[in-house]
Write a structure and sequence with these properties.
By secondary structure, the chain is of the alpha/beta class. The chain has three domains: 1-124 and 452-554, P-loop containing nucleotide triphosphate hydrolases (Rossmann fold), CATH 3.40.50; 132-153 and 357-451, Up-down Bundle (Glutathione S-transferase Yfyf (Class Pi), Chain A, domain 2), CATH 1.20.1050; 179-341, no CATH class. Helices cover 56% and strands 17% of the residues. α10 (242-257) packs antiparallel against α11 (264-290). The protein is flat. It starts with a strand and ends with a helix. The relative contact order is 0.13.
Length: 554
């Protein structure tokens, strides 16, 4: 659950600190007040890329920090534990944006990448945007929505993996059958690559060891002088050395102990220090005597490091991947040069992989069919509740399409906005308002099926009004019973259904514009809903209407 958010110097926000609770919370405000800025801040913490103008004008940096409680997200807790970023039942995400375009991210105080932020926030919150209905017409988006509700990530990955294996072997068969010049060129190129890499023959962990040795050898003179100077102070300086001084002190105290045993502890400490100094002197002498000023070795190491770095850049891999690259290219060269291109053997393997792929893809298709039937009924029900009486929604699946990484299904969303009409593709029959309601119906069903603890709706109620808007508000409030719901809205019918209400205000002072977010009490909430109903002039009748709307949600 999203518990707190702190924002400083972001866009036109000077400083905002908010606390959120369970249930449904709404953010309202006049057009242009900056309602979307708060969600933009959350999206940045969730891994979105920052724009150059994200930092408030005149400031060096912006900072956004959010805190999630993890009691409702075992998945996020497990992810944090796996990445050694866990904390006591909570997760603090922080993003720092600098005016020069640089940014840094932190998870529970640990440095994090944007990819890590996205992976973690996928388990913590789900954001539905006001433009989702526009992308809903795209076939790939329709498939992704169905698969998100399918709940079969392992099967989806299995199909993708088997298709990739099939495609890879198909390419090998094509190469074996073609006998083209490209294969010979690949052999020649691999021969050069393998010769360079084999000549380098970089072992696992060797590059780090070479860097350490290079550092020692290149600083051998300084290490020799420094260790010798310390050794002189400890022992080698005949006139003044620590060992002689400690020895003299120990002898003097030994004589005094016979007179007063209270000095025994001091004598023991100095005697122990003398032993430590003697051991340190011995260690330093061995270290100093072992230092070699080996210019030839230094040059050899330098050349080997440079060669390894050049090859890593050439093949666009990390230094730690050089050894694996060498093995992989050697195997590929052996395959191309050897007998692994037996066409009959490859064809048999290809047929086996195809059958294996089709089996898994068929299983995926069956599960999609089952889920699609259930979802079609659920989305149809919510559509009708949202004012499209007699309308119907159908997820049509053609399981005979060409094999692909996502399976053998062509998925289409069909809709009938009026009773008695056969469902047709979404883009052909749905108007803008109808498309918004269909999108909202899908988002409600997705949210009901999701295990994500925090749901954010960014003006998804655009394009609806009146009684439909009230139904939307009740739907979101119902979701708030099970999950935390945060909704940006311009509709009083939706705002009146919330458990908690925030108002976004824009103010101007000394030629500076700022946005503030205020948590509203009961009286303030009544005035805000009345403002949303009545505009500039708020009458007692408007307030009475607002009071009635709020009471209907309680």
């Amino acid at each position: 659950m999203l518990e707190t958010i702190q924002i400083r110097n972001f866009a036109i926000i000077d400083s905002v600190q908010l606390e959120f609770n369970t249930g449904m919370s709404v953010l309202t405000g006049e057009t242009g007040a900056g309602k979307s800025i708060l969600l933009d801040a959350i999206k940045l913490v969730a891994g979105d890329r920052a724009e150059s103008d994200s930092v408030r004008s005149g400031c060096e940096k912006a900072e956004i920090s959010v805190c999630f409680k993890l009691r409702d997200s075992a998945s996020a807790h497990d992810w944090l534990a796996q990445h050694e970023m866990e904390a006591e039942g909570e997760c603090v995400l922080r993003r720092v944006l600098h005016a020069n375009g640089r940014s840094r991210a932190f998870i529970n105080g640990c440095n994090a990448t944007l990819m890590q932020l996205r992976a973690l926030c996928d388990r913590l919150l789900d954001i539905h945007g006001q433009h989702d209905h526009q992308s809903l017409q795209l076939p790939q988006v329709q498939r992704q929505l169905l698969d998100a509700l399918l709940g079969e990530p392992a099967l989806l990955e299995e199909v993708r993996h088997k298709f990739d294996a099939y495609q890879s072997l198909q390419r090998r068969l094509d190469e074996a059958q073609s006998g083209t010049r490209e294969r010979e060129q690949r052999i020649d190129l691999l021969g050069l690559y393998c010769e360079e890499l084999n000549q380098l023959s970089l072992g696992v962990g060797e590059f780090e060891a070479l860097q350490d040795e290079y550092k020692r050898l290149s600083n051998a003179g300084r290490l020799l002088d420094g260790s010798g100077a310390v050794l002189a102070q400890l022992y080698d300086d005949e006139e003044h050395n620590i060992q002689s001084a400690l020895s003299l002190c120990a002898q003097q105290l030994e004589n005094l102990v016979e007179t007063d045993n209270a000095l025994a502890a001091s004598h023991e400490l100095i005697s122990a220090a003398l032993i430590q100094v003697q051991e340190a002197s011995s260690e330093l002498r061995s270290y100093r005597d072992g230092i070699e000023l080996d210019g030839a070795r230094l040059e050899t190491i330098n050349q080997r490091i440079a060669t390894a770095q050049n090859l890593a850049r050439k093949h666009r891999v990390e230094m730690t991947q050089i050894t694996g690259l060498t093995d992989r290219l050697n195997r590929e060269l052996e395959d191309l040069q050897g007998g692994s291109f037996d066409i009959e053997t490859i064809q048999a393997d290809l047929d086996r992989l195809r059958d294996d792929y089709l089996f898994s893809a068929g299983e995926l298709s069956r599960k999609r069919q089952q889920t699609a039937a259930i979802l079609s009924e659920q989305i149809t029900r919510v559509m009708q509740e949202l004012g499209m009486e007699g309308g119907s929604f159908v997820i049509d699946i053609d399981g005979a399409s060409a094999p692909a990484a996502h399976g053998i299904d062509e998925i289409r969303y069909l809709v009938s906005a009026n009773p008695g009409h056969a469902p047709k593709p979404l883009a052909r029959v749905a108007s803008g308002g109808e498309l918004s309601r269909i999108s909202l119906a899908i988002q409600v069903i997705m949210s009901e099926s999701s295990q994500i603890p925090t749901l954010i709706f960014d003006e998804v109620d655009s394009g609806v009004g009146g009684g439909v808007a009230e139904i939307v508000g009740k739907k979101l409030r119902l979701l708030g019973r099970e999950r935390q719901v945060l909704c940006v809205t311009h509709l009083p019918q939706v705002a009146s259904q919330a458990h908690h209400h925030f108002r976004v205000e824009k103010t101007s002072r000394h030629s500076q514009t700022s946005t503030a977010v205020l948590a509203l009490g009961d009286d303030e909430r009544l005035e805000e809903v009345a403002r949303m109903l009545g505009g500039v002039t708020i009458t007692e009748q408007t307030r009475a209407h607002a009071s009635e709307m709020i009471a209907s949600g309680d």
